Amino acid sequence: LANPIKTAIIDVIINTKNVAPTIFPSLFGDFIFDIDVVIVKNINGVITTSNKFKNMSPKGLKTVAFSLNINPTIAPIIIDTNNIIVDFPQGTMKILKRNNLNEQIKYIFITHTHADHFFDLPFIILDFYQRKQKLHIVICKKDRMKVLKLLKLGFPGLFYEFLLNKTINFIDNKKVIKIDNLTISSYKTVHGVMKNCYGYIFKYNDKKIVFTGDTTICDNLLDNIKDADYLICDVTNKVGNNFHLGVDDIKQFLNEYKNLKIIPSHMGKNSKKELLECKSQNLIIKEDLQDLIV
Q1: What is the DSSP code (8-state) at residue 37?
Q2: How many angstroms separate the CA atoms of 19 and 274, rounded?
Q3: Are 76 and 105 in contact (CB under 8 A)?
Q4: Which pLDDT score is estimated for 215?
């Protein structure tokens, strides 16, 4: 490396592997991972989707929502063709590989670092390392070390190879990210006592899609859904509490925001059953790997 500071730091990592992450907690963000965003261009301006990437639609952004059989409240969201997935819980990698989607993902947006939202990251990082590709992880800057600790726990023998090969590019989620016609920004949410919880706003041409992550009713959420076209939201419980939105909150939104289309995510068994009984054209309930054309 031409930069002597970077050379010295990497030399320290190589020669003191067991203590480097403890001694230099800031270097992993400041020196190794803060690389400019690589813009993924659309093919002829066309949007593609899910496991049918050869079937292209020129008219809109598509999202794919799915939960996992082992825990129906887990629901990562894929947004194409910019190859984005929001959250990466346990079991996600198996579903992606089963549907030939793992090589399409370029960006992962993490809402918060509870296990059911990021515990499968080591497996997709390994996949990117083996393919010599770079994975962009958008996350609160304060939570980067949690990802690195999880990665080191999962693959201690390869951990420093991941670092030296710059397999991960961490991006601060407070930055506004622009990819072609898609603009992504974050907003802070309230999820019990958990710190650093965020939702994301996706603006595509004239459409605004608000993704909540895990949250209760909070001012930032209400401010952002006033002019939103779609709300992809946590509906864990029948009745909302300090940690999660509930079916009662969704009914309130449907009554108050007449032009807002709501796509429930992170549904519990009981909340999904009650939502299925709701009669509203603005409530859209999707099954695993179904498309939503925006």
Answers
A1: P
A2: 51
A3: no
A4: 97
